[in-house]
């Protein structure tokens, strides 16, 4: 089940990688290789729902529009909005693309995020348990989609599990926030936080840096090849 006894979300999050040519927009990305795509709306349990909106990031809008017009994996592409090199698009997907998303959402799984580039598509999928993840992986191992699992995050009954934070990292961030460490001006400094945790100020500083990196990587920069690896807490 997704919901724990205290009402918190539980389950297993997997980062699923699909080669661009096996999913969507491979033709566009071969013409505009610097472009990246990020889904705005994804499937959540209902397999009849498609993914009509995504953000495109590129410095070549004319080239992107021309490539999308010729891309056989999408149809009826419409530019809805743009802001500083980012473009909100609405499009219809072809059958092959919809099939993969439907398979990913079998067994009550939910696609949380997805990002595509010339290196491939990365999906972050929440599965209710390990068994449903294993079943989906087994199916893909005998399919034509060439899906691979990049990373797996076990959820627990605490909120920090959502972003790959350890319990100490989560506690440090929340305490720093509650005590005013992020206010301007600060209401507590590193020395004050060190006293809170009864550890050295260097240990607090290192814990915060690691927590920030883990949070940014897993909440904001996930799926990017240059995002780096999140470091474990010490």
Describe what you observe in this structure.
It is a single chain. The protein is α+β, with helices and mostly antiparallel strands and 234 residues long. The protein has 2 domains: 12-154, no CATH class; 164-220. It has helices spanning 26-31, 61-70, 95-104, 130-141, 167-178, 190-197, 201-220, and strands spanning 12-18, 36-39, 53-57, 74-83, 86-93, 110-117, 120-127, 148-154. Strands 4-5-3-2-6-7-1-8 form an 8-stranded antiparallel β-sheet. Strand 6 (110-117) and strand 7 (120-127) form a beta hairpin.
Largest sheet: 8 strands, antiparallel
Q: Could you give the order of the helices and strands?
A: EHEEHEEHEEHEHHH
- Rg over alpha carbons: 20 Å
Proportion of residues in β-strands? 15-25%
Structural class by SSE content: alpha+beta
Which of globular, elongated, flat, extended, rod-shaped describes the shape?
globular
Figure out the total of helices. Answer: 7
| Strands ordered across the widest β-sheet | 4-5-3-2-6-7-1-8
Low-confidence stretches: 1-9, 42-49, 227-234
Q: Termini, distance in Å?
A: 31 Å
Mean pLDDT: 79
Total E-strand runs: 8
Whole-number count of domains: 2
Percent helix, as a range, is 25-40%
């Amino acid at each position: 089940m997704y919901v724990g006894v205290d009402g918190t979300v539980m389950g297993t999050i997997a980062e699923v990688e699909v080669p661009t040519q096996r999913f969507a927009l491979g033709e566009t990305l071969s013409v505009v290789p610097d472009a990246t795509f990020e889904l705005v709306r994804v499937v959540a349990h209902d397999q009849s729902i498609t993914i009509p909106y995504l953000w495109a990031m590129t410095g070549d809008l004319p080239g992107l529009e021309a490539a999308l017009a010729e891309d056989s994996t999408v149809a009826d592409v419409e530019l809805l909005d743009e802001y500083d090199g980012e473009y909100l698009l609405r499009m219809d997907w072809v059958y092959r693309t919809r099939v993969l998303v439907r398979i990913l959402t079998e067994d009550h799984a939910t696609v949380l995020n997805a990002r595509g580039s010339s290196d491939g598509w990365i999906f972050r999928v929440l599965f209710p348990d390990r068994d449903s993840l294993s079943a989906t992986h087994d199916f893909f191992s005998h399919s034509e989609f060439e899906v691979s699992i990049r990373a797996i995050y076990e959820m627990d009954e605490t909120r920090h599990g959502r972003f790959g934070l350890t319990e100490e990292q989560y506690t440090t961030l929340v305490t720093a926030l509650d005590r005013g460490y992020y206010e301007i001006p600060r209401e507590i400094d590193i020395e004050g936080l060190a006293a809170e945790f009864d550890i050295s100020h260097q240990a607090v500083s290192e814990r915060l840096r690691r927590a920030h990196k883990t949070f940014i990587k897993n909440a904001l920069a996930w799926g990017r090849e240059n995002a780096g690896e999140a470091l474990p807490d010490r």
